[in-house]
Amino acid sequence: MLSKTSFILSTLVVLSPCVGSFSITRTHLVQQPKASSLSTSGGIVTRFPPTKSIRKCDTRIAMSSNPNEDDVKKETTWDRITGPKLFKTVTNWEGIHSVPLVPLRIATGLLMIHHGSEGGVGPANFGTPEFQGFVDYIIKPHFGFLPGSPELWSAIHDYAEFYGGILFALGFLTRPAALSLLVTMFSAVYFHLSSTGLQGFPLGHVSNYSYDFEEPLLYSLIFLTFWFNGAGPLSVDSVIYEAISEEDE
Questions:
Q1: How many helices (DSSP H) and strands (DSSP E) are in the chain?
Q2: pTM of the model
Q3: What is the Cα 151 distance to its own chain's centre?
Q4: What pLDDT shows up at residue 94?
Q5: What is the dihedral of CA 101, 214, 111, 131, to 10 degrees?
Q6: What integer pLDDT is reported at residue 178 of this predicted model?
């Protein structure tokens, strides 16, 4: 018969010289007979050669910690103002970064409404001096190349700015509204540049302290921004999108 075999299980804990880390090694030592073993079966003698100890390392756990983790200085508001984030550009206009979009959209839309209501409360007030003055002094001399009646284009201008301003302020159909308002503002920029030119821009001084094309140009950039990015929070568009969108946020 085989001689009796003994099994010895030992666990060695080895500390690493590296600071803040250590490893645990579990070692199994399997001790087999040092001498030859004989087994007799049916008159046949079988010799088992001597074997050596087999060392099995089956588990090694490495753990580490950062001793300076508690020493990391927390970022303050002053650090954000004067540190590297002073030069960082926000690429995702969500959360807190979208808050300025709300007053900008609402104020711009409300300020645009009166531009489309010359001569009355509503748009396209045919026969009034204000509406006819827009036809005679703006559309005819500077947009005479457009096909159709000058009065028709004046009415389209009024409707775009009046109802477009309302939709823009509400944040409803914001992109179409922004696009229509963008066209009217580009037209206004063209009108002022064709009538008064650059007026010495950028260093020239004018009597009313602003260039004639300055206001419609700034409006154009605002409408361009919302045409690309949408209405933002607190808008009808955002409520509709949340109701019909199938995207996983």
A1: 8, 5
A2: 0.65
A3: 44
A4: 75
A5: -150
A6: 96
